[in-house]
Amino acid sequence: MTSDRREAPGQTPDNATAAARARDFFSVPAPVKRIFDRFPLVTYPPNDLPYCSWSNRQGNRLFVFTDAAGARHGRPSFNPQCLKWQAYLRFAGIDFDIIPSSNHASPTGALPFLLPALPVGNNAPIPSNKLQKWAIEQVHCEEEQQLNTRFEVYASLLDHRIRNAWLYTLYVDAENFDAVARRLYVDPSTTNPAVRAALALQLQQAARAELLKTSSFIDAAALEAEAGEAFEALSTLLGDNLHFFDRPNPGLFDASVFAYTHLILDEKMGWKRNRLGQLLRRHENLLQHRERLLNLF
Amino acid sequence: MVLKLHVWGPAFSLPSIDAQCLATIAYLSLTLPKDAWVLVASSDPSVSPTNELPALRNGNTWVSHFRNIVDYLRQYSSGDWDLDADLTGLDRADSIAFTSFLDTQFPPLLALSLYVTSQNYYSSVLPAYSSQILSWPSTWLIPPQHRAAAKRASDHLGLSSLDLVALEEDRKREHSAAVAAGRLPASLPLLKATTPATTSGLVPSHRFRMEAVTAAAFEPLAAMLPAHKQYLLGGDRPTSVDCLLLGYGCLAALGAEHLQEAWLGEAMRQKAPRVVEWVRDRQTAWLANDALPWRPTERPHWRTVGNTIWNTVAEATPVWRDYRVNTRMREVALAQEAELSPEERSALAKHATSYKKDVWLSVAVVVGGVAALVGYMAKVGFLSSTAWEEEYVDEEEEGEEEVVRPEIPEALNATDFLGSLSFS
């Protein structure tokens, strides 16, 4: 053994022990490894859609965030994404029922989704990013993105500037979260206080993570200033026209704008601090646009 | 007073590796007289109190972020240094919307192309950081931070398969999990990588998605800048949006001479050829390296080096990171005098304080959880001393043979040990 050592002078005992110790230090401790070896991670297949009294309805069914009374009267949903598609389908003249649901029921993990009366293909629900295509097939309305080059560019104002300010106002602002988001999203899902607390924390964390994606810290003043600019740009774009891009009938872009302007101005939301509302009220034509579209509900 | 612009350092024969910095440099070189500003490639966000680059310094005032710098210059020069002064009506609305469009579409694409695509990151971006931009030890700390941020920012595009190194690690982890779960015999070796070596061999569904993602960015862009327009808003003078487009555009249009996998530049050339041409022209006019008022950077002080290490450790520690984000938010809330009304400021500070409680709660949960795990292991017997030794023996037998573990005699005695060395 010692003769070996002499033949390889680099491999002195001190070096080898140090290397072994360093490896032991950084490798997973054996007891912890043993525990994790015993519990391999298993991913279960997705659950089926829940079976409930809504399942025997016949027509098109749109699953959105809403309450039972709102669903019966087809009132606007309180979630901007859901309201956008609800409004779009209504403007396009498609008949559908509103069904209260939650993210956990959706095959994609996000609402809204639609179960068509006449199933297409493999009888799968239609997620929100395919809804426009489905609606075009149903009623042969035009695809507005193709008609105006400004559509995509101005849509980024809604999808990012205004959405980020909305996320801040609803979830990160503590007073609004307690008064609005907790009542609308957390309390209806369960009565268990522990689950409620966990859900509330999850919602706030998700909103914060989303906002921190684009900046290194959450700057409320900057978010609100950007939303203010976005409203100004939308107001200029609308001008004196009845609908965006001077269309005779309201379309997808009107639905997207209405989804935010209606909820920001809606008294029933019960905002505690509504900075977005103050910014929006400076633009009279956007207020009238919202009133006109609200009459269609 | 000479204004000092701190930016990330030069790379790919551009004055900076960061799009916002490039846009700001272009804006300043267009608006300010030559002797009114200097450019410092400090490459260290901690020089500015906002911890962001680009940062403009004027005496004791610091302004960061392209948009804020544009606004600050307008106020500071009472309207003289302002490219957007003549915008009215629909042009102003277009300017806001185009800015928003560029700010939302380009950062995730650049993150994917420069940082997530592993060939580009390891063979172009990392060497650029270590040879031109950063000095030791920041070269070990900052690029991985940027890469992690880039992954977070581009996560929603669902193109993480561009990171071949991470894919390979995932495959290995899955393999060892399968072995541990008994689904595969341990003797079965890990199969040769079936992952593509280039983006042209990407999973088909990902190639479609890449097509869709680049089309969503470049097709509206091509429509915004048709052949008859000299600038984005159609006038005969550049505006701030043009600077922003140049900043993003010249990084997106990088070709095969700079990047190993130039898929983004390729897509841009296909979908918006005129924009690529425009970017090339403007780049030579507005971002010529030798025409910029460069100032040499100071040698990194030991305090900034220590600061960088401290920040890195803090950002990597889960609960501490949350705590720092929250503190920064409270500072912003308390620092801003003009924009926030008193009640808004107090509400924000209150929120930040309440969030602090959350942080302490999570600290308590982590400590409690660890204590419970240790207690459980002690109770079940995992932690008894015999178990430790047994495990180590097992580990050694399974481990690679390259580490030689010297045999230490049961009763080690200095004279015996020396004796065995000299007399064998």
UniProtKB/TrEMBL annotation, chain A:
<dbReference type="InterPro" id="IPR050931">
    <property type="entry name" value="Mito_Protein_Transport_Metaxin"/>
</dbReference>
<feature type="region of interest" description="Disordered">
    <location>
        <begin position="1"/>
        <end position="20"/>
    </location>
</feature>
<dbReference type="Pfam" id="PF17171">
    <property type="entry name" value="GST_C_6"/>
</dbReference>
<dbReference type="Pfam" id="PF10806">
    <property type="entry name" value="SAM35"/>
</dbReference>
<dbReference type="Pfam" id="PF17172">
    <property type="entry name" value="GST_N_4"/>
</dbReference>
<feature type="domain" description="Thioredoxin-like fold">
    <location>
        <begin position="80"/>
        <end position="176"/>
    </location>
</feature>
<dbReference type="InterPro" id="IPR021211">
    <property type="entry name" value="SAM35"/>
</dbReference>
<dbReference type="GO" id="GO:0007005">
    <property type="term" value="P:mitochondrion organization"/>
</dbReference>
<protein>
    <submittedName>
        <fullName>Mitochondrial outer membrane protein</fullName>
    </submittedName>
</protein>
<dbReference type="InterPro" id="IPR012336">
    <property type="entry name" value="Thioredoxin-like_fold"/>
</dbReference>
<dbReference type="InterPro" id="IPR033468">
    <property type="entry name" value="Metaxin_GST"/>
</dbReference>
<feature type="domain" description="Metaxin glutathione S-transferase">
    <location>
        <begin position="228"/>
        <end position="293"/>
    </location>
</feature>
<dbReference type="GO" id="GO:0001401">
    <property type="term" value="C:SAM complex"/>
</dbReference>
TrEMBL record, chain B:
<dbReference type="GO" id="GO:0001401">
    <property type="term" value="C:SAM complex"/>
</dbReference>
<keyword id="KW-1000">Mitochondrion outer membrane</keyword>
<keyword id="KW-0813">Transport</keyword>
<feature type="domain" description="Mitochondrial outer membrane transport complex Sam37/metaxin N-terminal">
    <location>
        <begin position="21"/>
        <end position="147"/>
    </location>
</feature>
<dbReference type="InterPro" id="IPR019564">
    <property type="entry name" value="Sam37/metaxin_N"/>
</dbReference>
<protein>
    <recommendedName>
        <fullName>Mitochondrial outer membrane transport complex Sam37/metaxin N-terminal domain-containing protein</fullName>
    </recommendedName>
</protein>
<dbReference type="InterPro" id="IPR050931">
    <property type="entry name" value="Mito_Protein_Transport_Metaxin"/>
</dbReference>
<keyword id="KW-0653">Protein transport</keyword>
<dbReference type="GO" id="GO:0015031">
    <property type="term" value="P:protein transport"/>
</dbReference>
<keyword id="KW-0496">Mitochondrion</keyword>
<dbReference type="Pfam" id="PF10568">
    <property type="entry name" value="Tom37"/>
</dbReference>
<keyword id="KW-0472">Membrane</keyword>
<dbReference type="GO" id="GO:0007005">
    <property type="term" value="P:mitochondrion organization"/>
</dbReference>
